[in-house]
UniProtKB/TrEMBL annotation:
<feature type="binding site">
    <location>
        <position position="221"/>
    </location>
    <ligand>
        <name>Mg(2+)</name>
    </ligand>
</feature>
<dbReference type="GO" id="GO:0007165">
    <property type="term" value="P:signal transduction"/>
</dbReference>
<feature type="binding site">
    <location>
        <position position="78"/>
    </location>
    <ligand>
        <name>Mg(2+)</name>
    </ligand>
</feature>
<protein>
    <recommendedName>
        <fullName>Inositol-1-monophosphatase</fullName>
        <ecNumber>3.1.3.25</ecNumber>
    </recommendedName>
</protein>
<keyword id="KW-0378">Hydrolase</keyword>
<keyword id="KW-0460">Magnesium</keyword>
<comment type="similarity">
    <text>Belongs to the inositol monophosphatase superfamily.</text>
</comment>
<dbReference type="InterPro" id="IPR020583">
    <property type="entry name" value="Inositol_monoP_metal-BS"/>
</dbReference>
<keyword id="KW-0479">Metal-binding</keyword>
<dbReference type="GO" id="GO:0046854">
    <property type="term" value="P:phosphatidylinositol phosphate biosynthetic process"/>
</dbReference>
<feature type="binding site">
    <location>
        <position position="94"/>
    </location>
    <ligand>
        <name>Mg(2+)</name>
    </ligand>
</feature>
<dbReference type="GO" id="GO:0046872">
    <property type="term" value="F:metal ion binding"/>
</dbReference>
<feature type="binding site">
    <location>
        <position position="97"/>
    </location>
    <ligand>
        <name>Mg(2+)</name>
    </ligand>
</feature>
<dbReference type="InterPro" id="IPR033942">
    <property type="entry name" value="IMPase"/>
</dbReference>
<dbReference type="InterPro" id="IPR020550">
    <property type="entry name" value="Inositol_monophosphatase_CS"/>
</dbReference>
<dbReference type="InterPro" id="IPR000760">
    <property type="entry name" value="Inositol_monophosphatase-like"/>
</dbReference>
<dbReference type="GO" id="GO:0008934">
    <property type="term" value="F:inositol monophosphate 1-phosphatase activity"/>
</dbReference>
Length: 264
């Protein structure tokens, strides 16, 4: 961070994480009511990249509630046009992370909301819709699950690590991802692909996964989860900082080894 930029205060994060949790839980309640009853309304980047009516309803609710609590905020989301505010607070919103799981009634679906001040992520909340768990973090305050502090695992060897990943909607990128799997599977404990980048990052932060990597995630997929994983003690790198379109998080001891295998 440039020396001329004043970092956000911890109290700003404390306030904004409360807002993020409240609004994410409201949206999760809305989404939960449609689990198992959703239908695709359109597609985006490919025929498999689906949008449901509930995605749009959830984002509309989130935007309305955030602007009521923090008038003048900027909001960037997955489904609707950006709201450009004036107060320096920004929100990064994924109304349903795991829409294909939601469409198929599979139990890995989340709502993700991150807060920024001056471009720095200071708070985040991710709600696991089916398990009704809330992961949260404020910058410098640690990570929590349902209000209880959590920590990443102290895994020391990749061959003992359970790694999460996800796949692109691009067939060309999927071919590259299969090559990574062929390298990683023999040298790790095992690999899981569960369909929600936000939850994968939270699970690294609370020790349910030892690591996670995925190419082609969007800012709204990983913004809140990055902070939660980092505040849980994991080492995190994201597309904005690495220029490779790669989200990766892992316990500090295995991060470099995991990264080397992923990079090939």
């Amino acid at each position: 961070m440039p020396s001329s930029v004043v970092p956000p205060s911890a109290t700003e994060g404390d306030h904004l994480v409360v807002v993020a949790v409240e609004v994410a839980r409201l949206a999760a309640t809305l989404v939960r009511a449609s689990v198992g009853a959703a239908a695709s309304t359109r597609t985006k980047s490919s025929p498999t990249d689906v949008v449901t009516a509930t995605d749009v309803e959830s984002e509309a609710l989130i935007r309305r509630e955030l602007l009521e609590r923090c008038p003048g905020s900027t909001i960037v989301g997955e489904e609707l046009d950006d709201d450009r505010g004036r107060n320096g607070v920004g929100w990064i919103v994924d109304p349903i992370d795991g829409t294909v799981n939601f469409l198929y009634d599979l139990p890995v679906v989340s709502v993700s909301i991150a807060a920024t001040v001056g471009g720095v992520t200071v708070a985040g909340a991710v709600v696991d819709i089916v398990r009704d768990e809330t992961f949260s973090a404020a910058l410098g305050r640690g990570a929590r699950r349902d209000g209880v502090p959590v920590r990443a695992r102290d895994t020391v060897a990749l061959d003992q690590a359970l790694i999460g990943t996800g796949f692109s909607y691009s067939s060309e990128r999927r071919a590259q991802q299969s090559e990574i799997l062929n390298r990683l599977l023999p040298v790790s404990r095992d690999i899981r692909c569960m369909g929600s980048a936000a939850l994968n990052l939270c699970w690294v932060g609370c020790g349910r996964l030892d690591g996670y990597y995925e190419h082609d995630t969007k800012l709204y997929d990983h913004a809140a989860g990055d902070l939660i994983a980092s505040e849980g003690g994991a080492r995190v790198d994201d597309p904005a900082s690495n220029g490779e379109g790669l989200s990766i998080a892992a316990s500090a001891a295995i991060f470099d080894e995991l990264r080397a295998v992923v990079d090939g």
